[in-house]
TrEMBL record:
GO terms for cellular component: efflux pump complex. This is Efflux RND transporter periplasmic adaptor subunit. The lineage of its organism: Bacteria, Pseudomonadati, Bacteroidota, Flavobacteriia, Flavobacteriales. One of its GO terms (molecular function) is efflux transmembrane transporter activity. The chain crosses the membrane at residues 5-26. The keyword tRNA-binding does not apply.
């Protein structure tokens, strides 16, 4: 009898446990379905952007170089000064080379002796020609030699002036000890000091740079981008340029140059780009400022979009979302994806009022 009662008791306990487990599973599943959060789509402008790092530089820089060699005697400007065309920047003191001066002096003496001799010959030939003793051709030959002797002396004197003064008389506009600005702008660099030796610019030598001048109202952004971004860029694209030194200023610009050839940088191919800046009135942009340029490569304005985290993919890798139905269940809805910025993606086949299941809610979503 006792054994029968024990058996019945065990059966009752088993049935109770089974009912409890079934009830717990149902309740757990019900709670689980209730825990899913939802999110509705939104109308948003989606942009694909590229960030280029670089610097702000003048569009054109002019280097002022001397056309005679010598030593800087005086400097009349400083870095940051605004200069006009023709404004005096510096003067050069010519240091004569003793051997050259001596050689030109000897040339003058020789030329004077030759001229004196040719003058006597010419005057004698002229008298004989008047008397009819010699022909006209002989007279003209003597006259020619006399003129050549005068020219030789004149040339020797000019060479002496060049050796001692740096320029021949009458040619001051071609070579001068005065270094003047050839353009209007700001002195960006003045890499000389009084007493420095400078070398003239010629066919065989670039010459010493006296000053670098640029118009700071005509500045450009020069930077670099990845090859994947370069392929999507076109000349004329608008850009937003942020300068680190001017936190409150965001300048506008337009892409003006994309390098035809890239270069390797740490295993990645980069392309140089340039953009013309639009500088607001009253804003001083200094050459060499570090800057970042933001370029919109592709854009879809005011499109229906969802967070990419809400999108799921089936076994065929087709995208879908789960939409909450009036009965509390979720229905699978296939969708077509459009442009994505990495966070939001353009979608089709859903409505703005649809409640989309957040199937992989993060701690931030739960908050």
């Amino acid at each position: 009898m006792k054994k029968k009662i024990l058996k019945i008791s065990l059966i009752v306990i088993f049935i109770a446990l089974l009912i409890f487990c079934i009830s717990y599973i149902i309740k757990a599943n019900s709670n689980k379905s209730e825990k899913f959060l939802t999110e509705t789509p939104l109308i948003k402008t989606i942009e694909i952007k590229s960030i280029a790092t670089g610097k702000i530089n003048p569009k054109e820089k002019i280097e002022i170089k001397p056309n005679i060699s010598g030593i800087i005697k005086e400097i009349y400007v400083k870095e940051g000064d605004q200069v006009e065309v023709g404004q005096l920047i510096a003067t050069i003191k010519v240091v004569p080379v003793v051997a050259t001066v001596n050689s030109t002096m000897q040339s003058i003496n020789s030329a004077k002796i030759q001229l004196s001799n040719q003058k006597r010959i010419f005057e004698r030939e002229k008298l004989l020609f008047i008397q009819g003793v010699i022909s006209k051709q002989e007279y003209e030959n003597a006259e020619t030699q006399y003129k050549l002797a005068k020219q030789t002396l004149n040339q020797a004197e000019k060479e002496y002036d060049i050796a001692t003064k740096g320029v021949a008389s009458g040619l001051e506009n071609l070579a001068s000890i005065q270094i003047r600005s050839t353009t209007k702008g700001m002195i960006l660099a003045l890499p000389i000091e009084v007493g420095n030796q400078v070398i003239e610019a010629n066919t065989f030598n670039a010459g010493t740079t006296i000053a670098t001048i640029a118009d700071i109202n005509k500045m450009i952004f020069e930077g670099k981008v990845d090859e994947s971004d370069a392929g999507m860029m076109k000349i004329g694209m608008p850009m937003n340029i942020v300068i680190g030194a001017l936190q409150d200023e965001k300048l506008q610009g337009n892409l003006s140059f994309i390098a035809p050839q890239g270069y390797d940088e740490n295993g990645a191919v980069k392309y140089n780009i340039k953009a013309d800046l639009k500088i607001p009135n009253g804003v001083l942009i200094r050459a060499g400022y570090s800057a970042n340029a933001e370029i919109v490569l592709n854009e879809r304005k005011d499109v229906l979009s969802v967070r990419e985290a809400l999108v799921q993919f089936d076994e065929q890798n087709k995208p879908f979302v789960e939409i909450l139905q009036p009965n509390g269940e979720y229905k699978k809805q296939d969708i077509t994806l459009g442009l994505s910025d990495g966070l939001y993606v353009e979608v089709h086949e859903i409505n703005i009022n649809d409640k989309i299941k957040i199937w992989n809610a993060s701690e931030e979503d739960n908050k």
